Structures are given as structure tokens and as C-alpha cells.
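Why do we bother with holo predictions? Because pocket geometry can differ from the apo form. Keep that in mind while you read this record for EPU.
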Amino acid sequence: MIIKENISLLSYNTFGIDAKADYFIEYSSVEELQTALQSEIVKSNRLLHIGGGSNLLFMKDFNGVILHSAINFIKKVSEDADTVMLEAGAVVNWDDFVAYTVENGWGGVENLSLIPGEVGASAVQNIGAYGVEVQDVITEVNAVEIETGETKNFLVEDCQYGYRESIFKKELKGRYIITSVVFKLQKQPDFKLNYQHLEAEVLKNGDINLQNIRKTIIAVRESKLPDPKIFGNAGSFFMNPVISKAHFNELLVQYPQMPHYFVSDTEEKVPAGWLIDQCGWKGKQIGNAGVHDKQALVLVNKGGATGAEIVYLAEQIQASVKSKFGIELRAEVNYI
Ligand code: EPU
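The structure, written out:
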């Protein structure tokens, strides 16, 4: 177990905010985590567990303990003629996991290539892209209860998954730490290429297979999303809002070109990026915080931005989307 004091969090958040934490504890096994949870430092301080830091915005220094997993393994749990079950430790880099599955010819997560973050956070956030959500392939989530230190196994049906939503963000928020996740992958992949022009893009790279899908998705993401090593960012800053059909129909009269996704007979989802773009924010900057010039859903640190500067920009955007479309945007990023 590694314990550090008064450390900079600069390398632990993809926004590149230079906040500090009083304590930082990194554990490399379930047992070490259980020991850490019983320690005086953890019991007497505020606690924040972080993953790859790709969904966090530090607004000031963190007075308390940051916990981080070093549980790093991928193992085959079982397999049959059609499927392979893999268990991955919480700290495994998400895209390394995707690369491993694609190299082995196992399908299911190729559309989720290049999403930043770690395996543990993927199961909290229910990461999704290009028509796939991680809940489609998760079968089990292993966790430790913070208060008691007891281990608990959640089946996917216990996790209450929804769009960027799970039980770990709702009633169990702050109560469990995910230590590993079990995934079910397909030996004869069922490719999901319905999202926008994905199939045509893949065909430009050759045949439809796992490698080409991964390659295409990486190219699409790289063309739209800024590299956090150059401009700090946390991917989509806001969630795509789900609005009532009545509201949607009213807007459609005024904006017939508005992109949208079917949710149910009573609700429709609209891309936040399009709404923000329509309000004229793409490429705009206030102080050191900016709106990415190729995808308005992404806010970027133009260099030395504070968390407060990013939030100020986010609030201005929320206000203009509210006034133009009557829609409240919700941040996907967590303000700390
Ligand atoms: N659009 C614009 N202007 C913009 C951005 C988007 O007009 O500045 C339009 C696009 O032309 C398109 C529509 O909005 O018609 C949707 O855009 P895009 O395909 O880029 O996807 P998105 O809905 O903005 C979501 C996810 C992304 C994910 C992509 C691909 C959320 C909040 N975001 O973005 O996830 O990669 O779909 O599936 O659901 C993330 O969560 O960090 C993330 C990047």
C-alpha cells in the first residue's frame, strides 16, 4: 500500500487541474483496500475514490483522502463454444482492456475503443459510445463496502443501469468501491454498426471485423475529441438531455434538422453538442476555459484553467441552452 501526503492531483485528472489532496492512498489488492478502510486516516477524513480522473473537475484543493486502486489484472474466468468470460481489475486502463479483447478476436467492446478511464469507473458510469453501452457486456461487478469492508458481488441486473446511470451513482453512491468487473464477450462477434455512418466508415478501412471497427472508432474519436495530453478535458461535459415528446415536437417545428434519438413513446434524446453548437458556443473561450472547436459537447482547459473557470463557462452554456431551447443540461462531469 502506498500512502502519500499533500500531493498534487495534476496527473490524476484529465482536465489538468492543479489541485492538491491532504492524503493519497493506493492499494493493490482487496485485502489492502480492507486494511486501508479500517485505518484512522480514512475513518477520520473525507474520502474520494478516483479512477482515471476522466470525469472529475476539481474546483479547489481536496481536504481529505483520495483512494486509488492498483488492482491490475485481466483473467479468463471461463469459456464455452460461443463466449469468453473475462474478469478485469478496477485499475485496468479501459482502452487496454478493449485492445486485449480485439487482439484475441472476442467481440463486444470494440465500439467502446479509446474511451478514457479505467475498468472500475466504466461500471459506475455505464460508459457508452457508437450504439453500445458497457452494461451490454457486464455480467458481474465485485466491490467492497466502505463502511464494513465486506466484499459484495453485484449481478448486472442489480446494477440498475441506464444511460450514463447506475446504482453506484444513485442509492449506493459513495458506499462501495469496485474492485473488479466480469465481462461476457462473443467469439462470433455480433457487430453493432448502426450508429450514424459507422458502417460506411468501417468499410473505407476494409472488411467488417473487430480490428477495423476499432481502428475506425479510434479515428472518428481522434478527429472529434481533443487529446487530454494537449488540452485537458473530460470527454462529454454534459449528458445528452432526454425531453418529453411534446417538447421535442414543438422544437422540431422550429428546428427540423435537429438530430435526435428515440428513447420511448413519451421521450426523445437530443444531442447536447448540437444544442450548444446552435447557441454559437463552438470554439469560444472565456478566460482559460474553452469549448472544443470540433465537438461543442467537450469543454477544454486551454492552459492553466482553474476548476472555477471551467464551471463558469459550463454555467453560461447551460443558461443559453435553457433560454433558446427550454432544456436544462446536466453535467456528466462530477464537480469536486
Ligand atoms: N453535433 C453538432 N455539433 C457539435 C457536436 C455534435 O451539430 O458540436 C451533432 C452531430 O452532428 C450529430 C449529433 O450532434 O448529429 C451527435 O454528435 P456525436 O455523434 O458526436 O455524439 P454525441 O451525442 O455528441 C455521444 C456521447 C459520446 C460518444 C458519442 C458517440 C454523450 C453525452 N456523449 O456524443 O460520449 O462518444 O455519442 O457515440 O452521450 C463521453 O461520454 O465522454 C463521450 C464522448
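The two ends are 25 Å apart (CA to CA).
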